[in-house]
């Protein structure tokens, strides 16, 4: 059912649309995270066009050109990126960034030089990769950072939200324990998968919009892009159906609620029945 729905959504999209291109890019053997974020930006911002995407990619290339090539080991790479991005160009975050949708949009983060930890980390990763740095993303709970070097050997961590400040093991443990109440598991410190990073960015957008009832349009496109990723939580289909009903598309929302009920019915019959009642109530609102 899920694969059939994906095929139908793909068939319904123009091949040149940002959503279709996002879906195609997410299924590449090596997904281009910067491109995925910029295509998300096209969905979010009508003012971002092909020229704007090119400008963002050129800016990442330009910044990479200012990083010294092969300055040394992991610590030297981390310091080199911090000098260029954190000190010279002032990329860093603040509490106010959590209140702005722009803080999750790569083209706006490049323009403002400020954003959420995960988007600033993305800038560090993309600039570092272009400069030849052994850089990777580290998805700490509640606070995304970057690593340099061998994630399972000699490496250092840095916090782009704090201008690229290097993190000790104790610093990282405090960041994690502040969210989870426990020290970090070794797996948390490994490289984050690009599509997992993309899903986390979309989850941030969903959370931002969910706190603002007037922005259900933003929550809807964030859910719909997440559903285009090869792997995503099944419950996103339920969230999309609820949003459609909330926005007045009762028929489509009811149909998707019923389809979701079929999916969960085998394992959770009571939950499925509750969803079917929601679908019935949505159809009743058509009368």
UniProtKB/TrEMBL annotation:
Residues 9-24 have a biased composition (Basic and acidic residues). Residues 1-24 are annotated as: Disordered. InterPro entries: SirB1_N (IPR032698). Residues 56-203 form the Protein SirB1 N-terminal domain. It comes from the Bacteria. Belongs to the UPF0162 family. PANTHER family: F-BOX ONLY PROTEIN 21, SI:DKEY-261L7.2. This is Putative transcriptional regulator. It comes from Streptomyces himastatinicus ATCC 53653.
